[in-house]
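Reviewer 2 asked us to include a model.

Predict the structure of this chain.
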Amino acid sequence: MKATLEFNLDDPEDIINHLRVVKSLDLAIAIYDILQLRKKLERRFENTNNTNNDAFDGIQEYSDEIGKILEKRNINIDELLN
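Predicted model (structure tokens):
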């Protein structure tokens, strides 16, 4: 079986659809990395003095790490959702 996808790259909607297709592997890898973040952050916070950290520090750290993952995979959410 074969499938052929065609996109009219002069059509703004097709450009977005094309980007979604070519970024699908990067998105899957980024989601996997995001799911692994909890373990990474647990190890990081275990090695620090937790008296200075609160829930908001953890949320900020988690958010920052997600941003780094998306940047590493060159994923621009705005570009894919317009």
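The chain has a mean pLDDT of 88. Residues 12-81 form one domain. We have added this to the supplementary material.
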